[in-house]
Design brief:
The chain is an alpha/beta fold. The protein contains eleven helices and twelve strands. It has a single domain, classed as TIM Barrel. The model has no long low-confidence stretch (mean pLDDT 94).
């Protein structure tokens, strides 16, 4: 199976679909990664904060696939922002992953309350990239304004902005801003796993894959609702990292290349947007936010 790729603004080629391991238990991660690689995935996305980088490294080792054939992403956690802490965290991630370089290293959140430390980390990441220890650097959960501040203050343009994005929260303005800056948009929670509240019943969650529009399209194309949503992402030119620990679901999630959604059906999915964020807002996320009781 040949998975399509996207060329980043520094020339690095990135597979358009990968396996995400957010909330994958550490003890299940190695098997999940090995299963994904056996199914044809070549892109794995993890983070220091997930607590499963070592499992990702074990799964890669078990696969027997040459490291050069893989695209490995991890993320710098906000508690490790600042130059010296970033260096230590980077080395720790490499050790856990069992590799001597990263394909993509991301700032996990912008932390506007401590943006000086955010920039210090970003500048060190660029130095590590220049020395060949990272192939590309990018950000997660940044607004367009935060990206512009980062660029203005450091002169370094991210290659990727990984953000919450799915048909219920499509972030069209941010996608356009990323594109204008030649930054690839990568979707976390691409299948809407973070729920929003139903406008008519605040106690009732909306599950994207249960919506009748998705079920109708799935029946028409003889695909699953998840495949319909992932195909929508791909046709919009985004990178996606669906999560699963089940081999059958992993195989389903990359079985996307024998059909194309019509313009009419793309419009149906586009129209599902509710502009309701499931995760935290980038303007609010920092260590104080994490420490505060969540309602």
């Amino acid at each position: 199976m040949s998975i399509p790729t996207i060329t980043l603004n520094n020339g690095v080629v990135m597979p358009q679909i990968g396996l995400g391991v957010y909330l994958t238990p550490a003890e299940q991660t190695a098997a999940a990664v090995a299963s994904a690689l056996a199914a044809g995935y070549r892109h794995i996305d993890t983070a220091a904060a997930y607590g499963n980088e070592a499992g990702v490294g074990q799964g890669i080792a078990q696969s027997g696939i040459d490291r050069a054939e893989l695209f490995v992403t991890t993320k710098l956690w906000i508690a490790d922002y600042g130059r010296e802490a970033t260096q230590r965290a980077f080395e720790d991630s490499l050790q856990k992953l069992g590799t001597d370089y990263l394909d993509l290293y991301l700032l996990h959140w912008p932390t506007p309350s401590n943006f000086e430390a955010t920039m210090a980390s970003w500048q060190l990441m660029e130095e590590l990239r220049a020395h060949g220890r990272i192939r590309a650097i990018g950000v997660c959960n940044f607004t367009a304004e935060q990206i512009d501040t980062l660029i203005a203050r450091t002169g370094i343009v991210p290659t990727v902005n990984q953000v919450e994005l799915h048909p219920l929260f499509s972030q069209t303005g941010l996608q356009a801003a990323n594109q204008a800056r030649n930054i690839v948009t990568e979707a976390w929670s691409p299948l809407g796993g973070v729920y929003t509240n139903h406008p008519a019943d605040p106690n009732q969650p909306i599950r994207l894959l249960d919506l009748p529009q998705l079920k109708e399209l799935a029946a028409q194309y003889n695909k699953s609702p998840a495949q319909i949503v992932l195909r929508w992402h791909l046709q919009h030119g985004r990178v996606v990292i669906p999560k699963s620990v089940h081999a059958a679901r992993m195989a389903e999630n990359i079985d996307l290349f024998d059909f194309t959604l019509s313009d009419q059906h793309m419009a149906v999915l586009n129209a599902l947007n509710q502009d309701q964020r499931g995760g935290p807002h980038p303007d609010q996320f920092d260590m104080d936010f994490l420490a505060a009781p969540q309602s």
